[in-house]
TrEMBL record:
Homotetramer, a dimer of dimers. One homotetramer interacts with 1 SecA dimer. The lineage of its organism: Bacteria, Pseudomonadati, Pseudomonadota, Gammaproteobacteria, Moraxellales. The gene is secB. GO terms for cellular component: cytoplasm. Belongs to the SecB family. One of the proteins required for the normal export of preproteins out of the cell cytoplasm. It is a molecular chaperone that binds to a subset of precursor proteins, maintaining them in a translocation-competent state. It also specifically binds to its receptor SecA. It comes from the Bacteria. InterPro entries: SecB, SecB-like_sf. Pfam families: SecB. It is found in: Cytoplasm. GO terms for biological process: protein folding; protein tetramerization; protein transport. The keyword Cell wall biogenesis/degradation does not apply. This is Protein-export protein SecB.
Amino acid sequence: MSEQQAQPQLALERIYAKDLSFEVPSAKVFTKEWQPELNINLSSSAEQIDTTHYEVVLKVTVSAENQQETAFIAEVQQAGIFLMENIDQEQLPQLLGAYCPSILFPFAREAINDIVTKGSFPQLLLAPINFDAAFAENLARAQQEQQQAATGNA
């Protein structure tokens, strides 16, 4: 009798806006020429809900300064519940840290654009992001810091 290997399963079961925030600190921004400087921050987190489900949250924060004043701050936490069954444990960090956020990003991008335009600012379409490259870069940086800490404590 041969054992059947369980097939890996990965599926997005639900996508939702976990948190939305938009702030315009001063109406003076609307009386000035619009030449913004944008600061965009992204981060993601993952939490295991049960044995087969993970909640992954992609947080996107955009702050715009116009003539040294904050014009607006927009923040979106786009979340998804992902089914992950029979996944190799070595693959989990890559899936949770790069693959899942890349699925969530278009939804977060749309939400940022919506709240910025509803705040009566020009359309803001964030550029695509290579989450695999960012994940690899963060992993390499963490390994380098770990090595430096190990050699510094020797």
